[in-house]
Amino acid sequence: MLKNLLETYSFTLNKEILNTGIQLFINNNLNTDISSLLLKGSDFKDVGTKEIAEQIEAKKRSEKKLPSWFTTEGIYYPNKLNIEQTSSEKTAAYKASLIEGKRILDLTGGFGVDSFYFANRFDEVHHCEINKNLSEIVSHNFSVMNKKNIITFAENGLDYLKKSNLHFDCIFVDPARRDDRKNKVFFLQDCTPDILEILPFLFSKTNCVMVKTSPLLDIKKGLEDLKNVNAVHVVAVNNEVKELLWLLYSDKIHSPAIHTINIKRETQELFRFDLIEETTAKSNFSLPQNYLYEPNSAILKSGGFNVLSEKLKLNKLHAHTHLYTSAEKMEFPGRRFEILKTVPYNKKLLKKELTEGKANITTRNFPETVSQIRKKTKIKEGGNLYLFFCTDSNNEKKVIFCKKI
Fold it and tell me: How far is the C-alpha of 59 from the C-alpha of 321, rounded, in Å?
């Protein structure tokens, strides 16, 4: 019921929402059940219940994703879908760190989180957003947050660019990844705008184009379709890949660099390699030694499995088992474990070796899923023991008992 009520609500800008009493009500009801608010109705003359519910929903979604917006008084929130689709502050700050200059165009500006961080790296940011209400919201919020070097344009970014005589140091494009029926898409040609079609025009206005795409896009396919790719950045937050960033330069002449980053609460895990390195790198293989290493999700997405082994001087367990091992403890961009023992995969033997009835289970290059293993072995989830069900360098199915370090 709640979902239907909010989806049928057509969002329009109502500045009465910014009144002190309504803002206080929103803040005091962030943890209130939205359904009960909708059913109760609004006590405010100029603001409807659905509008208040939308503000509460969007602000709640911003608490962790957009803390600077959440903690700033007087922020106007758009439909919650805009919050879902926008970059987080962590990923926006990272992408802004990759480029700098005098002037940048955010062609598909949205809620403006990326533009906000670009403003720290460029003298002037041009933010285009075709939705006039959203553009007005963004302009208001930038003013509240004292970002004075961002100029907002309530129009299609391509139309604006066609009229402009300016040259930009960079153009940033985050194509919409939903079709006419609101279904999610991720192939470049299915997104709006079609970056493959407009790229030649963009290069007539800049020497640098940054494209943000879905993490589901295959990197090899993206490299085949996009031209002049200088670098691909695989961006993960807390081990979940959030976006792929493609840096394109008009004068690109070398093999693309692949950068992986996993942004954690206190640290960042970084690993970089040139695409050609992965094609020439050779992995060393061995049976499990004293320590086991599991790459973070950004590295797994990047496909840099052989170059990881070669650069970090770690042995792989198998060509298709993306786990690594060493005799000595090493630094690693991912999870590290001390190996307690390794046993063949056998239900009776596993039951004998497992002194506790629970463990954390991971599978790599293994014919059964975690749920199938739990059902068959009756191993409960949790505890400090980690079990890796995998195939080793002898093509044998093994279970590696570990503790996290």
Answer: 42
The residues, ordered by sequence, that sit 6+ positions from 385 with a Cβ below 8 Å of its Cβ are 354, 356, 358, 359, 360, 401, 402, 403
Bond prior to 344 in cis (omega within 30° of 0)? no
Q: Rounded distance, CA 386 to CA 263, Å?
A: 23
Residues with Cβ < 8 Å from 348, sequence gap 6 or more? none
* Residue 54 · residue 79 · CB < 8 Å: yes
Record the tokens describing residue 36, joined without a space. 């009960």
Classified as helix, coil or strand, 118 is helix
Tell me 149's DSSP state: T
Q: How long, in residues, is the chain?
A: 405
50 contacts 14 by C-beta, under 8 angstroms: no
3-class secondary structure, 378:
coil
Token pair belonging to 110: 């949205």
pLDDT digit string, tens, across residues 332-347:
999 999 999 999 999 8
CA distances to 6, 45, 48, 79, 131 from 9, in Å: 5, 18, 11, 9, 16
Please tell me whether residue 5 adopts helix, strand or coil conformation.
helix
Q: Are the CB atoms for 72 and 145 separated by under 8 Å?
A: yes
CB 242 within 8 A of CB 235: yes
pLDDT in tens, 238-296: 999 999 999 999 987 778 999 999 999 999 999 999 999 999 999 999 999 999 999 99
Q: Which residue has the tokens 């970014």?
A: 157
